[in-house]
Each structure stands twice: as C-alpha cells, then as structure tokens.
Design goal:
5 strands; 90 residues
C-alpha cells in the first residue's frame, strides 16, 4: 500500500508473490451503489478481485503499479492500513 498524491488516497496493486496483508473495510453494496462508488474513485483506480486471509474473494479498487513506481509514492504497507496511516499523519 502506498500513499498516493501526497496522502490524497491509498494506492495498492497486485503482486505475484511476497505481498503484504493490509487491514481494510468490507462493505455490502447494491450494484447501483457500487457504480456510484466507482464513479467517485480517483483517476486510474480500477476494481479487481482480491483474496482475503480467510480465502473469501471480494472486489477492491487497485492502482496501476507503474504509476506508483513512476512517482515513487511512499510505501505505507506496515502502517496498519489506510485509516491508521491517516490518523497518524495528521
């Protein structure tokens, strides 16, 4: 997980191996609510399946790894998740 755009939003991307487990939030949405959420996400973010520790597969919004690496955004994978990072950076 990276802090994109100087802390504007989180940026996570899929890796083939050696990834990090990060805390997150799970919401149950109607298809209409999902579309509204997707429309409000930052540019370049896209929905993709992720596998939770218990094996459940859900949809999360990911960010292109190429952009994270291009801008060298801070890696915050070990900061306890996005909410913990934001609480500690204020």
């Amino acid at each position: 997980m990276h802090s994109a755009e100087n802390g504007w939003h989180p940026a996570i991307y899929e890796v083939a191996s050696g990834g990090a487990s990060i805390p997150g939030e799970v919401y149950e949405l109607t298809p209409e609510d999902f579309e509204k959420l997707a429309a409000g996400e930052p540019p370049h973010m896209y929905p993709s399946h992720v596998i939770l520790e218990d094996g459940e597969v859900l949809t999360a919004f990911l960010y292109p790894r190429e952009l994270v690496e291009k801008y060298q955004w801070e890696d915050i994978s070990d900061r306890g998740g996005w909410a913990a990072y934001k609480a500690g950076s204020q």
